Amino acid sequence: GIEALETAIVENVWHEQRIDTQGILVSNLRHIHALKNCRDALTRSRELLKRQMSPEFISEEIKAAVNFLDCITGRDIDADLLENIFSKFCIGK
Q: What's phi and psi for 41, nearest 5 deg?
């Protein structure tokens, strides 16, 4: 019955739109923005490489890209983000 369930979900939820079930689905808006910003920083670094700019400029763009990914993985969490995350949870009353 799994195939019938999958078909029913596609028909009723996705309205016949096919989705890549093997791909990655990012639903958190903050993560989507971070990934787009990371992509943009990497695009800028590639353009700087093509223009044979100084390595310092290229490394700054790559560092920015890594920082955007760190925001997703939790390696770089600022106080505002923590406040935003924990404001959505109710921890015992």
A: -65, -40
Residue 85, helix vs strand vs coil: helix
Identity (one letter) of the amino acid at 66? V
Cβ burial 55-85 (10 Å sphere, 16+ → b, else e): eeebeebeebbeebbebbeeeeeeeeeeeee
pTM of the model: 0.59
Q: Which residue has the tokens 């990934």?
A: 35
Structure tokens at 82: 């923590």
CB atoms inside a 10 Å sphere around CB 38: 19
Among residues 8, 9, 67, 4, the alpha carbon closest in space to that of 41 is found at 67
Q: Which two tokens stand for residue 42?
A: 């990497």
User: What's the pLDDT band for 24 if we cut at 50, 70, 90?
Assistant: confident
